[in-house]
Amino acid sequence: MPAPQLGGRGRRHEDPAAGLRSPLLEEFRNAKDRKWTLKDIYGHVVEFSMDQHGSRFIQQKIETADEEEKQIIFDEIMPHHALKLIQDVFGNYVVQKFFEHGNELQTSLLAKTMEGHILPLSLQMYGCRVVQKAIEHMPAEQQSAFVDELAGDVLRCVKDANGNHVIQRLIESVPPERLTFIAAFQGHVCDLATHPYGCRVLQRCFENLPEHQTRVLLSEVQEHALQLMQDQFGNYVIQFVLEHGQPQDRASIVSKLHGQMLHMSRHKFASNVVEKALVMAEPSSRRALIEEVMAPRPDGPNPFVSMMKDQFANYVLQRALMVADQDQKEALVELVKPQLQNLRKISHHGRHLVASKWLDCDILPLNDANYL
User: Fold this and answer.
1) Pick from 139, 159, 227, 316: most CB atoms within 10 A?
2) Where are the Pumilio repeats (predicted)?
3) Crossing angle of helices 234-244 and 198-208, rounded to 10°
4) pLDDT tens track for 92-108
């Protein structure tokens, strides 16, 4: 039997309705009232696995089947049809069930069959799901074999719509010392952080790997922090470090915002980082950021006036009101009060701030119609 083609981007599933179904499968699809068992489909497991209804039937039965029944089903799949089913729109779910409910020998044999094909399977729409399931259920030694196969193409996988999920699962499931491909990310952190899939992989690295593996990656993040804050994907990496990173990493990123508060607050993506920084910063750093917003500028009005009218920065001001110390909150409100009347008239975005519950406090004269 010729080997199945690997590495496709998913293929149109052949519809058995075009006269390709066996009489048994036709009967199965039409005999709704009959109580079917796995024994009823022996000899037709591969065909049933590649049929929507047949696949669902096998999946359900495998969960409660005894060892003998599972072995018969397994023997029809292995070794000649496993790769074909792994890449099939319905068959991949049957293979996944064996990783979940098969015995140790069955899962090991399935993983062995996949070895040598991990890259094309990881890039394939359905194969990548089976690779992920295999990673979850096989021993560390076989996980390492998967890692080794992908090591030379890890950056390609990270940027692939299917392959990135495999890399994420490896980072989550494999002992860190076996993840030799992490070194390939060095020098590419900015590129990865600004990629729709790469930014997810970096976050999984920071979430799951020890300090000695992530330090060089975090250093690159800090080096390009201002650029990443303003990127549609990179800002999520920065926010993740602010929320989950070490105190020194958080402090380093917060320090980049000093002198940049107005500009960053008015930016579509960076404004989200500013909000996160206001929440996560140490109290003294938070005070400094809020003070920068309130401080008069020699070349124009206070930054907060522009921020009140801005579609993004007005949310930063609301966040500042939420997290500020009481004295700064009072000072902010005093700055805002003279602007409220005009703000309600001239700025659609400023109305968010006017309506903010954080202005509804004892600091404002709530019964004064000139203000609220």
Assistant:
1) 316
2) 40-75, 76-112, 113-148, 184-219, 220-255, 256-291, 292-334
3) 10
4) 999 999 999 999 999 99
pLDDT tens-place values along the chain, 372 residues long: 444 455 444 433 444 444 589 999 999 999 878 899 999 999 999 999 999 999 999 999 999 999 999 999 999 999 999 999 999 999 999 999 999 999 999 999 999 999 999 999 999 999 999 999 999 999 999 999 999 999 999 999 999 999 999 999 999 999 999 999 999 999 999 999 999 999 999 999 999 999 999 999 999 999 999 999 999 999 999 999 999 999 999 999 999 999 999 999 999 999 999 999 999 999 999 999 999 998 887 776 678 888 888 999 999 999 999 999 999 999 988 887 777 766 665 555 555 555 555 555 443 333 333 322
pLDDT at position 335 is 83
When the candidates are 3.30.70.330, 1.10.10.10, 3.40.50.970, 1.25.10.10, the CATH number that belongs to 1-135 is: 1.25.10.10
Residue 295 bridge partners (DSSP):
none
Tokens of 354: 């006017």
CA distance 364 to 328: 14
For residue 2, the 8-state DSSP code is: P
- Torsion angle (degrees, nearest 10) of CA 357, 359, 364, 367: -40
Encode pLDDT of 125-149 as tens digits. 999 999 999 999 999 999 999 999 9
What distance in Å separates the CA atoms of residue 365 and residue 329, rounded to the nearest whole number?
15
3-state secondary structure of 297: strand
Alpha-carbon distance of 16 to 29, in angstroms, equals 11
Is 337 in contact with 368 (CB distance < 8 Å)?
no
R_g of the chain computed on alpha carbons: 29
User: 10 Å Cβ neighbour count for 365?
Assistant: 11
d(CA 350, CA 115): 59
C-alpha to C-alpha distance for 59 and 57, rounded to whole angstroms: 5
Cα 13 off chain centre by:
28
Q: Nearest Cα to 119, choosing from 79, 76, 161, 163?
A: 163
